[in-house]
Amino acid sequence: MPVIAISSDDLIQIEQHFKVSAGPGAGKTHWLVNHIAHILRESKRLGSYRKIACITYTNIAVETISKRLNSTADRVEVSTIHGFIYHNILKPYLSFIAHEYGFDIRKMDGHDDHFVSRAKLKEWIDAHPNLSKLKHPFTRNQLLRLPANLDSLKSWMQSIHYTFNGSDVEIAVDNKRAFLAGASSGINKATMDKLSVDLIGYKKLYWVKGRLHHDDVLFFGYKLLIKYPFILKVLRARFPYFVIDEFQDTSPIQTAIIKLLAAEETIVGVIGDKAQSIFSFQGASPADFSSFTLPNQNNYEINDNRRSTNRIVDVLNTVRTDIRQKPSRAVPGDKPSILVGTRKNAFAHVKSQCGNEPIITLSRDNVMARSMMKEYNSAIPARNLLSDLFDKDNSKRANTVVRCMKAVDLGLQNRFKEAIRELERVVVEPNRELRRKKAFQHLSILLSQYQLFKSAPLYDFYTLIKTHIDPGLTKLANGNIKNFYENVSFDQVILFIDTNVENPESKTIHAAKGDEFNNVLVVFTKDKEINCLITPDLTQEEHRVKYVAFSRAKSRLFISVENLDKATAHKLNPLFEIINV
Ligand SMILES: Nc1ncnc2c1ncn2[C@@H]1O[C@H](COP(=O)(O)OP(=O)(O)OP(=O)(O)O)[C@@H](O)[C@H]1O
Description:
With 581 residues, this protein is of the alpha/beta class. The chain contains 27 helices and 17 strands. It is globular, with a radius of gyration of 25 Å.
């Protein structure tokens, strides 16, 4: 099928599968919202009961699109793919297969991140079919008691994920992750081979408690659709149109589910940009977007950039060679700058240039992004304290503390609905109304005491929770775990919590995807990251991540790097102002 060039104002025909490819700022989201309105106006198949499903990647994008849809929002189900599958497939039907997987459906309550803890590893290994085959130097005790082995084992199991082999979903681990950065060795391949025969045994330790990790939602969703095809019929009857934004970040299992839906009746449309595929750790790849086709699919592309100034689009066009964007705002703009020196000085320089306008700092990783915030300005700890918490503490107490921390974090961002949802999962109260009321009261207590526990030992925060929220939590006995709570502070641990921070000052690049800001400061942690501008190669994910960061800027773009050699500075001169700060 030929590719048809369109603009973000053009309407297309609604009864055929489609794919829209376009670079950053082309107006994909804008176009999608228009297209949904177009379907609502034109469709003869919707009626009053049927809805359009609109899938996007993050909860923040869900909110943005819902707001933009305005009064028509009740005719459209906007959600993440996980949210969609959880509500439309798992909630009504997981009981059909729960027994087969040892899942306690009565305890199911949403889906969470996965953190490996020593307690879970111990439980898994003790019941493992190959327990007696574990050999020196990786016996059960050596794995669980020697810190280097345990760290390696934890890192390896943290990589547990699902893969799609073309017809079924399988559980896998990434053996490379058993070798920790800086360590010369980790657990050996023979041990990994023996342990990996029972990955499902590990998953079942969570399932028996009704606990789902995000990936499990896709796993069970796919299993249900294959085993009970009538569910597909129900979904197709309810959702005759299915559109997916940011499709380049869709994993192969999600694609398989979408193809099942598209086989009859439901019209599927996908929108994306292969150069903005930055979630390979969730199984997504640029090639999957390029090769995605459905029968009789129409392919469209948009070549404008309606977001950025001409000088920023020049930078984007240098990094990317497969398309050349036209800067349709036609505003020349300031020359982007590379600020050479400390991050602090770079930030001061940006402030001096932008006056009172807001500035957003974009960083590669969460901990750096959070350390750039005013709120949590403690030094970055060397270890992941959240992993340490799950490792040292029992899972009930660790989960309660982390949910309360998340609630505080969300509350500070004025995201009260989400904060209350976190706390509702902590409150033991069968009555829904009462549970919500209590969660609300708890949130007020936590936020009113914030200044007191913010920089204090985590122990103080725990005491507050035990006193006011969950008196049933067990007392912290003297020893390892109490020491941990006494020796780390709340504001150190919270650096590791990821709530997709809606913070006006500082975000990760991954969290900023899809968004746009007038003034952007991109922080490079390592000097060599500048290579993405000297020898750009968008087949490398790290270069795509930078491309996403640069393309968020509407008016001013700054890049902070500690050192820059003369030759590199010379090469960058045509596109950037090089400023020593
Ligand atoms: N037809 C249009 N008329 C007016 N403004 C538009 C139009 N299309 C897009 N825009 C504006 O251009 C900017 C970029 O649009 P949008 O966020 O939809 O791009 P996108 O392709 O989804 O970007 P990205 O992939 O980088 O997230 C937004 O500020 C949007 O409001």
